[in-house]
Amino acid sequence: MARSKRLARVGRECVACGTCMKVCPRAAIRVVSGVVARVNGELCIGCGKCAGVCPADVIAMVERGSGE
Ligand code: SF4
Ligand code: SF4
């Protein structure tokens, strides 16, 4: 699969609630050590579902190559 143009980026204000993990169709976002969610850029297809459900609104969709 070709890489998407966008990917999700999680801000430091993440409260590790895990909501984003439940909606990701690619299992590309995971809460690490119960502290913060991390995005696997190889798996993320840039669909934006995680950003849409994050209760803390800390997920931004960014262009690849822009400091990902
Ligand atoms: S939904 Fe938002 S606050 Fe919750 S783990 Fe994911 S990025 Fe963090
Ligand atoms: S943008 Fe889509 S594929 Fe990427 S981490 Fe969020 S839900 Fe998963």
Question: What does this protein structure show overall?
Answer:
By secondary structure, the protein is of the alpha+beta class. 15% of the residues lie in helices and 26% in strands. It is built from two helices and four strands, in the order E-H-E-E-H-E. The chain has helices at residues 19-23, 49-53; strands at residues 6-10, 29-32, 36-39, 59-63. The mean pLDDT is 93. It binds iron/sulfur cluster (2 copies).
Question: Which structural traits does this protein have?
Answer:
68 residues; alpha+beta; Alpha-Beta Plaits; two-stranded antiparallel ribbon; two-stranded antiparallel sheet; 2 helices; 15% helix; 26% strand; globular; binds iron/sulfur cluster
List the helices and strands and how they pair.
Blueprint: E1 6-10, H1 19-23, E2 29-32, E3 36-39, H2 49-53, E4 59-63
One iron/sulfur cluster binds at residues 10, 14-20, 31, 37, 54, 56, 58-59.
